[in-house]
Amino acid sequence: MPRRPAFHRRVLDWFDVHGRHDLPWQASRDPYRVWVSEIMLQQTQVKTVIPYYQRFLQRFPDVHALANAEQDEVLHHWTGLGYYARARNLQKAAQVVRDEYAGEFPASLEDLAGLPGIGRSTAGSILAAAFGQRGIILDGNVKRVLARHRAVEGWPGKTAVHDALWEIAEELTPRERHADYNQAMMDLGATLCTRSSPRCGDCPVAADCVAREQGNPGAYPGKKPRKTMPVRNTRFFMARNPAGELWLEKRPAPGIWGGLWCFPEAGERDPAAWCLDVFGAEPGSIEAWHEFRHTFSHYHLDIQPVLLHVPAPAAAVMEADRQLWYNVRENPRIGLAAPVVDLLRQLATGSSPAAGTRKSPKAKE
In 3-state terms, what secondary structure has residue 248? Predict the structure, then answer.
């Protein structure tokens, strides 16, 4: 029997024919552009990232433009992409590169991994794609491919399982065509070795895949232990002035939606009393909308919006950098929390949530 080609050779041969070669970030080896794409692609699908990536680079074409920008504008260009800590860390890292590396990205694994928001796998991907070095990656798709190929049992979130997968990734990553191999492994996991319906018949490494031999590729990788998601409740006070503007407040940096603009959360406070404190007069009317659910990775947040028609804004003492009147027709360039975007859209069109509890998709903070 002829000897089977090496794992990486089969993966690369498949990639040359079936892989993705026209992604916008593949056209450049500029470390800045590679880095922005890597951060955006964390826990986000390629098709979602592409338009955000293109708009982001149009506004922030280099590391200095990003480092020097206002955070509100950075978050504005991230609104809807989710996991907003990525955007905050992106700008922090740009400022470190500007201030400590004279605007040039470091070309070592240790220095790259020391930048905010860059872990071992992301650093490895940047090393390979931007600097041509042998950078090892282990994103979600790669974990799935390797766990199935070697039948590595257990949830990758466990240290022992995670370390075992890193050892396999180190072993199999070639010393040539590093960027192509990394992209090939991600493509393989995204298109063939998918979570629910793996296409083993088309897989270039199926011949020696242990999970396929066992007949249970879906059993790998192991699932995260299920936990009951806690539920929290809050209310959004949507104060609207006679001009139709909405009162928003900037969230503190730590915590959910950090640095984003949001409707005030009021808990159990009486809306009329809150309006009196903030605007010096009670609201002309109060309209309670139906509650809806926003789900984070670790808990559900049930939100009840309350629309308040308030007096002229002159009564409010406003902190310019923490509070603003939002004009839905002008669309200010600020970052908005995901449920706020949805509510502003409804307010702009004059619609309100349909009867019953409305549930949003899983949130990305």
Answer: strand
Nearest CA-CA partner of 231 in 300, 305, 147, 135: 300
Tell me the torsion sign for CA atoms 161, 167, 171, 174.
positive
Query: Of 38, 73, 245, 265, which one is the catalytic site residue?
Result: 38
Q: What's the full length of the chain, in residues?
A: 365
* 96 class by beta-carbon count within 10 Å (0-12 exposed, 13-18 middle, 19+ buried): middle
- The domain ranges of the chain are 7-219, 231-362
Do residues 222 and 161 lie in contact, with contact meaning Cβ atoms separated by under 8 Å?
A: yes
Which fold, 7-219?
Answer: Endonuclease III; domain 1 (1.10.340)
Provide the residue type at 232 as one letter: R
Identify whether 38 is a catalytic site residue.
yes
Q: Taking the mean position of all CA atoms in its chain, how far away is CA 331?
A: 22
Dihedral angle, C-alpha 314, 346, 254, 310, nearest 10 °: 20
**Residue pLDDT tens, the chain, 365 long:** 456 789 999 999 999 999 999 999 998 899 999 999 999 999 889 999 999 999 999 999 999 999 999 999 999 999 888 888 999 999 999 999 999 999 999 999 999 999 999 999 999 999 999 999 999 999 999 999 999 999 999 999 999 999 999 999 999 999 999 999 999 999 999 999 999 999 999 999 999 999 999 999 999 999 988 888 899 999 999 999 998 899 999 998 777 888 899 999 987 889 999 988 888 888 989 999 999 999 887 889 999 999 999 876 545 556 667 888 998 888 778 899 889 999 998 998 876 654 333 333 344 55
Side chain identity, residue 86: R
Fold agreement (7-219, 231-362): no
Query: Quick one: fold of 231-362?
Result: Nucleoside Triphosphate Pyrophosphohydrolase (3.90.79)
DSSP string covering 312-349, please? -GGGS---TTTEEEE-TTT--S--B-HHHHHHHHHHHH
